[in-house]
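Archive maintenance. Older records in this collection stored only the sequence; we are now back-filling the structure field for every entry so that each record is complete. The fields below show one back-filled record exactly as it appears after the update. Entries are processed alphabetically, and Serine kinase is next in the queue.

ARCHIVE ENTRY
Title: Serine kinase
Organism field: Rubellimicrobium aerolatum
Length field: 304
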Amino acid sequence: MNGPCSRPAGTPLDAFGLGGWTFAVEPDELMPSVTWTWRDRIGTAAGRPDGMPGHHALHGEGIGCALISMDDRSVRLREPEGADEATVAQWIADQAVPRILAHLGEFVVHAGAVQAGDGRVALFLGPTGRGKSTLTGFLHREGWTLLGDDAARLSLQDGQAVAGALYRRLKLLPDSWNRLFPEPGTPPILTGRKVSVDLDAVLDPVAPRPVAAIFRIDMPGDTREPVAHRLSGAETCMELVRESFALDPTDRGRAAHRLPLAAAVAAAAPGFALSYPRDFAQLGRVRDLVAATLDRTAHARLGP
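Back-filled structure field:
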């Protein structure tokens, strides 16, 4: 997938599910002053441009400030703060796009999504640095299909929770990349400290697929082997809310809209807390545990 920053100004964002939206890089003087209202743990800030109703601002450390217009459906980024095109493109796809989709009413969560050989999809939730990409990359290497490693669109279809990834790309720190994919292959793209590579579109990355289970990746603590325990529906709901995207996290009306969506998904797909030692040698056992958990959920759904 070519990043939006590598194309001409006014690049359509249709491929991400934002029909009619465009992205462009523009000079600094076109950016207004902004009242910032929120900042996340990785330095992304959200705010309102002063005197510009219908507009939002999003700032990424080392990236710059993006002006987002709901009126003309555009994302205009101030000249990047030293970031290369690949890094800017990744930030637009990972941060701006899912937040815009959420603002428009979709339920988008920070999650990795992989599909087992029999079609069952597992979601992995957790903050940046918890190991989602390494685990999903390992499962992909082992024959599971990576749908996405950063953002998933969740909804219900006929009472079934379904997930569709925004785009199909794997992003790993160099040490994880070298351990998981040491064989020569498609040259990866360096974006900041991470290695990013496009994957062949074996599956449509947007089309929703049934979710078999949702896994919250916990800190390993004193765990010496992989373990998974069932979360209550309320716990799963709150994890989904915690990891959901929002363009304006201070907007209580839209927060109230996300809560019943999270509750419905949590009621339709079981949640589990997954903990394991952060050791590459353990990932095979994690794979087996995830597969066994999916088997149990399938048997429980089918009944005796």
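Update note: The longest helix spans residues 283-302. The mean pLDDT is 85.
Entry marked complete.
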